[in-house]
Structure prediction request, 244 residues.
Amino acid sequence: MFLFLTFVCRLLFNLGMSKKDLLVQVSLQQKEIEIFKRRHRSRRVRFRHSDRVVFSILNKVAHLKEQFSVVKPETVLGWQRHLIKQFWTFKKNKRVGRPPVSNDIKQLILAMKNDNLFWGYKRIQGELKKLDINLDKKTIRNILSDCRRRGKIKQSLTWKKFLCLQIQSIYAMDFFTIDTILKQRFYVFFIIYHRTREIAHVAITMNPCREFVRQQLIEFGEQLNHLVYMIHDNAAQFNLNYLT
Prediction:
C-alpha cells in the first residue's frame, strides 16, 4: 500500500512538471540505469568521461544534484568545475608574426652601429640589404634599443667630450661695444683662449666689417704654429664664406 501511494504521489508530481524538467529526469534515469548495468558486469562503478559530462550538463540545466543515486552531489560539482576549467584553458598557439631575428644578425647590426656611430636605422637597413638580409626598420630600431639598454653600444662623441679633447686648440672671437661721453661707439674685437680664458688678441674699430675681422684673423694666425678651432656666432662679420 505504501509503495502504491508513493507511486501515485510521484505520478502527480511529474504531471505538474514542465516538459524540460521531465526530459531531464528521464535522461538522468536512463543514464543511471546504464551505469547500473555496467556495475553488474564489474563489481565497481567506473565512471567514464561521457558520464561526467552528462551529469554535469544535467545538473547545470535543472540543478539535480540532490537526485543523483549513483554519485554524491559534491562529486558532480567537482566534475562540473573541472570541465569548466578544461574548457577555458586553451593551449598556446604557435608563434605568429615575423620570425625571430637570429643572434648572428643581431651581432652584425651591433657591429655596424659601433663601427659607425652616426649611422641610423635606414642606413643600417640599406647595408643589410646589400647582404641579402631584409629587416624592417622598426625591427632594427628595437634591436639597437635593446643593445643600448644593455650598454653594448659605444657612446658617440658629445659636444662636451669634443671640448675636453680639443681644449688645447679652441679659441673664440666676438665683439663688445664701448660708448664714450662724446656719444661715440667703439667696437672691441677680441679672441679668447678657451683653456685659460686669456685674451689672445684684441683690436678696436668704429666699423666692424668683414674686412676688419679678416685682417685681425690674419694677424692672429701669424702668431700660431698649429691648427686651431675658432668659435663664433652667426653674425655677418663672422661668415667664414667671406673670410677665406
Q: What stands out?
A: The longest strand covers residues 170-179. The radius of gyration is 46 Å.
